[in-house]
Design a protein that fits this description.
binds 6-phosphogluconic acid; globular; N-(1-d-carboxylethyl)-l-norvaline Dehydrogenase, domain 2; Single alpha-helices involved in coiled-coils or other helix-helix interfaces; seven-stranded mixed β-sheet; alpha/beta; single chain; two-stranded antiparallel sheet; Rossmann fold; 3 domains; 537 residues
Amino acid sequence: AVADLGVTGMGVMGSRLARNFARHGYTVAIHNVTPDMTADVINEHGEEGQFVPADDMADFVASLKTPRVVLVMVVAGEITDQVIERVAQYLEPGDIIIDGGNALYTDTIRREKELAERGLLFVGAGVSGGAEGALNGPSIMPGASDEAYERVGPLLTAIAARAEDGEPCTTHISTDGSGHYVKMVHNGIEYADMQLIAEAYALMRGALDMTPAEMAKVFAAWNETELESYLIEITSEVLAKVDEETGKPLVDVIVDQAGQKGTGRWTVQDALDLGVPITGIAEATFARALSSSVPQREAGADLQALAEAWDVTDRDAFIEDVRRALYASKVVAYSQGFDQIAAAALEYDWNIDLGAVAKIWRAGCIIRARFLDEIAAAYDADHVIPAATSDGDAGAGDEPDKDGAGTANEASTDSEHAAGEHSGTHTPDAETADAEGSSGGETDVPLLLAAPHFRATVEECIPALRRIVAQAALHGVAVPAFGASLAYYDGVRVNRLPAALIQGLRDYFGSHTYARIDKDGIFHTRWAEDGAEEKVG
Ligand code: 6PG
């Protein structure tokens, strides 16, 4: 046996990761269910390093040094299960399988358990960076036991991207499904980022009648500001591209229906379960769904806008407003995403270092952005305010409920109470949280928005975000992600939310009870009877 590791699945990602390992001096066994793809890698890139091609799974596994490490790079879902099973039958206790696909984290948790029963170690590694990243250095988010990480950590570190300060863009996230979870939220943020960019584009187009080529220049200029990021950079390139066949901007001949493979949807589904308001990501996911709702769009096509006509006198000021709106909303999206990871860590018992996550997203991945340095610094400096601290002036809200049974939206008991004067962004089952004694300062569901750097830079942009959302509404441009970001900002900011009225209504029709700001306990008003209040708990 000569190979340091094996890669099965010679698609775009698998073949490029295999080449990345080979370029770093590893001897890499490669395999694909159809051997011609393995042969292509050897024919086209065989000189890049030491490859051991195998047509047959038994030969592939036999070529690996022990304990064996096999990276599976195939389509997420059932195919991953099938390939894992095909590999596992040839492995021995102590061997390790890494799934580098975009697996659903619950599948990863299940697979890890099932393989552990057979003595095999399983690592669910989120890999971001697309084809280019896979070859030249992706951001890698492995969820693994300490035992498995000890063996695979150095391999993954060797091929990962390097941030500007030289730090590798991979870290041991936590156990089992944690790596795929963090990758899932990465993709959710990716959705929000792209939707915000698309809304900025729609506004400049609608308000200023700018051409894609003109906007390409604007995005290129924005990439020199605190918005600097991979997605802003490639937006400029996509907008500048002219279709060879028609001579039109390519963006004008692309069908306006956004696809999705599932990770954004999963992010939103899980956030709903956790009760974490990731509104920017949710709107971005639904905006894709709306774009692809063809019959509804056809039926709605002649609805009247009844909007005002644009008449922007100061074009530069408008463009600067859009840039600021984009920055503020982008910070909201990342803040919500990190909030979700923090909540998931509590719920699923993962010990996740949020600063380390920010650091490994600084290069290699799709959402890499200059301001991730500041996010990492905010966590490292402990500037992120714990959610459930008792001062109650700027917290992100309570932790989500811990037992997984009563979700935030499900009135599993009637004992919810507002958390002091500031009822927060989560609406937990307070009884459950209290019962576990964990609703205190020791939790740290963060509010990145309130960390000093972000507070200062976002506040500078808020007036612009307000103007942009208002203008968009008046002029009939849909900006769901900008709107949701502003609503979130105002929601976490205000001292009293209208949720008090909702509690009153719930108590009226369903005796769901409420807490009072001035007394301990749980109360119910006998609305339909004598109108008196009783203390019920
Ligand atoms: C990455 C990307 C990558 C891919 C996703 C998203 O980090 O490299 O997120 O994983 O682009 O599959 O795809 P959809 O937009 O199709 O959901």
